[in-house]
Amino acid sequence: MSGQMASLTSGISRSIAYCLEMTFLTFLNELSYPRGAVSQLLAREAVRTLIALLRELKRERSDLALHSSVPLNNIPLGDNLWLGSLRADGETLDEWRFLRGLENRAPFHFGLDHEIEGNVDYEFENESAAALGFVHEFDALAISFDSEAWRSPTVKVTRIELQEDGTLELEDVCVRNASLNTHVEPLRTWIRIIALQEPQDGDDLWANRTSRFPRLRFLQKVEAQIRSLKAGSPALFAVNRRLWEIQSALSAWDFTSVSLPTFRTKVTPEREQRRDLFEFKDLN
Asked: Which of these, 32, 66, 131, 212, could form a disulfide with 145 (CB 3.0-4.6 Å)?
C-alpha cells in the first residue's frame, strides 16, 4: 500500500498549492497518458483534443483548474515525447498558453505519503490510480486523454483500505470521466448544480448551515473547524460533499422505523483506537 490517497480530506491541503479562486476541481488522469510509439503529429492531435474538452468545460465554469500528477513539461505523450517538447512548436503555442492558465503547479500526489495517517489506495485494472482516487474523494471530474478505453462517462475503480487487523477491504466505486468535448453536454446539469451547492468558504458554510442542511445539528465546537476551511480548498469541497450526503440520507429516512438511514457512502463505527478521542454532549 503506497498510502498516497490516505486521509485526503485533512491532508491534501499540505500538498496542493491551490489558488483561492479555484472552485471547479478536475484531475488529469495519469493512466490515460498516450503510450508506445507516438508520432509528433498524433501527439499534437491528442493535446488539441484534450484542450477542446477543457475549453468546453471552461465555457461552463470559468473557475476551472487542472491538477496533474507531474508538471506540464513532464507529461508523457508516448515513449519519446513529452508535452514540454511541443512548447517550441508554433502550431501549438496557443494550446500551451491555455494549459498553463489552468495548471496547478503542485503535483497532486506530492507529500501524500507515510507522514499522513491512514492507508487508502485506488486502482484501475490493477494499476495505481491516483487521479481517479482524488476524483472519487472530492466528487470531481477526471480529465483523460482520448482513447477507446477512456470514452466512458464513468470509470469503475477499486478503493482499497488497509484495516487495523492487517486485512484489505476492497470496494468498487464509480467516478466521472471525460475525454472529448462532446462529453461535457451530459455533465452540464451536474456542473451547474454543484456550483449552486458550493459554499464560498467556511464562514459561508457555517452561517448557512441551517438552510443547507436542515436535518443536521452541529455542535458548537465544530464552528471553528468549519470556519477555518478556506475558499476554493479541496477540504472545503470534501466536507461540504459529506454533509450533503448525510443530509440526503436523513431526508429520505423514515425515522419511525427501526432501520438505519441509507447512507450514500460507506459508514462504519469508529475504530477502537479512535473512540476515546471523541466526546460530546448529547443535545437530546
From this structure: 32
Which distant-in-sequence residues (6+ apart) come within 8 Å of 201 by Cβ?
A: 229, 230, 231, 236
**Chain position carrying cell 489558488:** 19
Are 29 and 65 members of one domain? Answer: yes
**Could you tell me which of 25, 70, 46, 59 has the C-alpha nearest to residue 175?**
25
Q: What confidence tens digit (pLDDT) does each residue in 52-106 have? A: 999 999 888 877 888 888 888 889 999 988 888 877 666 767 777 888 888 765 5
Whether 127 and 35 have beta carbons less than 8 Å apart is answered as no
**Same domain membership, residue 157 and residue 215:** no
Q: How confident is the model at residue 169 (pLDDT cuts 50, 70, 90)?
A: confident
- Domain containing 223: what range? 200-267
- Work out the burial of residue 171: count CB atoms within 10 Å of its CB; fewer than 13 is exposed, 13-18 middle, 19 or more buried: exposed
